[in-house]
Predict the 3D structure of the following.
Amino acid sequence: MDLLFSTTTTTETTGDGSGTHHPIEVTVGGHTLRARREMAERFVRHARLNAVSSGAPLTVLVHADGVDLFHITPTTPVIVRDVSGAAPVTLWASPACPGRAAPAMATKEKRTTMTDLHQRIIDKAYPLYLQHAVHEITRQQVEAAAVVTAAQFDAEFDSMDALAAECLKLREREWTIGIVRAGAEARADDPVGQLLAIFDVFDEWFHRDDYEACTFVNVLLEMGKAHPLGQASAEHLEYIRSLIAEIAEEAGLREPDEFALSLHLLMKGSIINAVEGDGRAALRAKDMARDLIARFRPVVTTETGSIVVVDPRWAHG
């Protein structure tokens, strides 16, 4: 079934009283979340592609309780329903759902969770990888921080590189999605405003006492792209660019992938400047981002055949 999100304005009340601003129910496996219409629509747009391909990327859902990252494959049951009315309406169901209906079919499958020991090791190692180079962190440090034995560590991770890779995934979830993307969406409703709001998020980040620069860039520079961790970092950086390109496309900018490369350059440059002590690094980058947005704004052909770039003053915020 195709996505049936309505663009008309309605009173989004829910039958269970769980909130008027999150009328869409998203069930992935046995886990159900509530989301705003626009966030659910974005989720479905990516989930629909991932549900029919192998090696699919992670799919983001910004919902009432925060942000979740799902690995959706052709075998993942996903159902999206509008529960704002008297009777729920199925908007989309993945091919893995028998009959592509009946969300109850998915409730039998529980969301895969890590063991408490596994998660504890990650939680204790994570801040170490944020503050130190990969090669500086030893197994003994991690085992001491997590209060585990060598045998317990070996039972959960094949190597220190495997642990570092999971910490990078957590960084993507907490920073890229939980802070940068969610922060930009919280500050602006329109796509252009969200692109500029990235640098407002950065400005707050740069002025934190525990500012740690970009872990992905740090690991990539330290390990090199040929190393598995370097490659993983490069993939995480590519994911950031894909988010920018997605927002740029929603904003109607030309060549969203090219725009994303340029804006990401500003983002990474501001991170370096902040490390050097530039307290206005994010604001400088935001000013340049306005010019960049204007440059990629659609052009208009006049009756005489000349090309006129839309007035860049539209890009404000």
Notes: The longest helix spans residues 160-187.
